[in-house]
Amino acid sequence: MTPFVLDITLRSPMILSYRTMLDSLLIGLGYERYGAASTVRDQLPLRHTHGVPHASQMLVGMPDVPLVRSTTLIQSMIRVLSNNVLVTEMLDKQPPPSAMSHGSGPNSNVESVYVTHAIPKVTFLGVGDIVQIRNLTTTLVHLGSQAHKGNGEVEQVSVTEVRADPTWFGIIGEYEGQSVVLRPIPKRLVHLLPHGVVGFDTNETWSYPYFPGHPEAVVEPCLVPPFVHGEGFHRDVIRRLYSP
Questions:
Q1: Spatial distance between the Cα atoms of 23 and 127, rounded to a whole number of angstroms
Q2: Domain residues of the chain, as ranges?
Q3: What is the rounded CA–CA span in Å between residue 192 and residue 50?
Q4: Greatest CA span in the chain, whole angstroms?
């Protein structure tokens, strides 16, 4: 098992999920490729320490441009065509615009409630079988929420071996001069961590499946990273997390 950095370059703005975990991403790719026959979940190509996978949450640097709230207007084809004198006769029997439903369907005007982030690259840190991880991530095409609409389109994936102490790599890193957890850790295991490691105290899932509403999800008191994605996460922090 080797320390590595997984870099994902994005072609389109992405919509961030609350917390994207590397082990969950790999398991999802396994199911997409092999279906119910996937063994990735039971044979995860990642090192584990006290049952915790050496797999960080997704680490995001601050975007170089401001965050943009995406707005999508879907305008009624009928109202557009009504400006064309050549087709007004066809529209004579159509109901007036005031009688149309604008909340849904082809006549709706919809503003997206999602915030898109112009992020060029995201990073995961971990310790595992680099060959298997490269093989799994070759089929990664989208990342983040609303991917089916073209958000978070992946341009390139690279898995790079790094010279680092594998003991806690992918679980613990350095942030603003402090040792912090890079993934949720059950508080019952905190005494096993190196002295001085900090994080936020909350109830959360710490292993797959991470969705709290999933019937197999386990929610318990955890120590979690003191940052969520790009909030206060400086551009150079990823470099500092794994610099030899």
A1: 11
A2: 2-67+114-242, 73-110
A3: 9
A4: 79
At 136, list the tokens.
């799994």
pLDDT tens digit sequence for 26-80: 998 888 887 776 777 788 899 999 889 999 999 886 444 444 444 443 444 444 4
Which two three-digit tokens encode residue 121?
């690259």
Contact 14, 117 (CB under 8 A): yes
**At 118, is the pLDDT very low, low, confident or very high (cuts 50, 70, 90)?**
confident
SS3 25: helix
CA torsion angle 139 141 145 151 (round to 10) = 180
Find the mean pLDDT for residues 96-101: 53
Using the structure block, give the residue that is written with the tokens 């797999």. 55
242: left (phi over 0), alpha (psi -120 to 50) or beta: alpha
Q: What percent of the chain has pLDDT over 70?
A: 70
- What residues does 55 pair with on adjacent strands? 126
Going by C-beta distance under 8 Å and a sequence separation of 6 or more, which residues neighbour residue 160? 4, 5, 7
User: What pLDDT is stored for residue 212 in this prediction?
Assistant: 79
d(CA 219, CA 241): 28
Say how far apart CA 234 and CA 63 lie, in whole Å.
9
